[in-house]
Amino acid sequence: MELRKKVSPAVVKRLPRYYRYLGDLLKMDITRISSKELSVRMGITASQIRQDLNCFGGFGQQGYGYNVELLYNEIGDILGVNYRFKFIIIGAGNMGQALANYANFEKRGYELIGIFDVNPKVVGTKIRDIEVMHTDLLEKFVGENRVDIAILSTPYTQTPAVAEKIVELGIKGLWNFSAMDLKLTKDVVVENVHLSDSLMVLGYNLKEKFLTE
Amino acid sequence: MELRKKVSPAVVKRLPRYYRYLGDLLKMDITRISSKELSVRMGITASQIRQDLNCFGGFGQQGYGYNVELLYNEIGDILGVNYRFKFIIIGAGNMGQALANYANFEKRGYELIGIFDVNPKVVGTKIRDIEVMHTDLLEKFVGENRVDIAILSTPYTQTPAVAEKIVELGIKGLWNFSAMDLKLTKDVVVENVHLSDSLMVLGYNLKEKFLTE
After folding, report:
1. What's the ipTM?
2. What's the predicted TM-score (pTM) here?
């Protein structure tokens, strides 16, 4: 367990990708794989893979490679898929609804237990059998249910107030889609998602590769 | 122009973030800023900022700091916001619809010109005044319109065939939300988006910080 504490943020960022690829291998009934083969599939170097996976004590064996299922389960365990994190969505606009319908989260061990909005047109409607509640009911809901993570998909202007409320209610994880960066504090861990950033990186690469003489 | 070619992928990944923060400063009528002040706002070190921005010839002046508007425009130019990239969305499910409704892309210089799906319930409906077309019409559409980027929000199983079609039609940019990694080739630049990965990083940090004794 001591070793795990040393995992660097850069390695942590790559773990979900290992987890995905290993899951795909399992589906294909591939039971073991060398770092070289995995490297070809994932498009990263074999030495990077060995270095990353050594952080957890090294599951590979010389001449055998990695036991896919063992590694998959171990990385899943490190990532916390067995915690059955419970999350809510605040802001049931287009992005909130898209996220609510994203079944992949469940496969990763995340369970959606509530959706909140202030828009009277949306409150009371159902998304995947979950009735959208008015945000006024958030405090009551959090009092009665364990909520690990709140997804923020509110409009930009509402973000600070909602984020403050979330922290005040003791929710410890914040997944933020609201276009405004929120900072990690001692009370909460945050992941900010900026979809436009990814699109702009694509645009840059497109320009550099194909549009610039 | 020579200098720009040397921008590393790591720096490119940070540019959209600089662009956002500088845009926010402009909105607040802040006309100049030191790397130190910017560092506090952005939560990265001042030396990192200076190093990043020096890649483009360095816009800062000792004792003055950065001219916000100049830097904003320059980074925008580097990122290609003036190219008016035209994009289409293939797959008008929840994620496709959320992306179609994401107005931020337009602010960054990206214009949505077409939406495609195969589902008869969706084809013919309108999203932001754009009628969803059947994917069979894709080839004709690309023949008649300049399409820089295709957003893939198709179900997993359809992804390989649709991606192949896109490359065959000569579209050079692929923004992939389809849960299956696609690889960059000489014919196309790709950004793969895996929302679950970001959630799992959050889950890991949550676990490490609050749930593990």
Report:
1. 0.90
2. 0.86
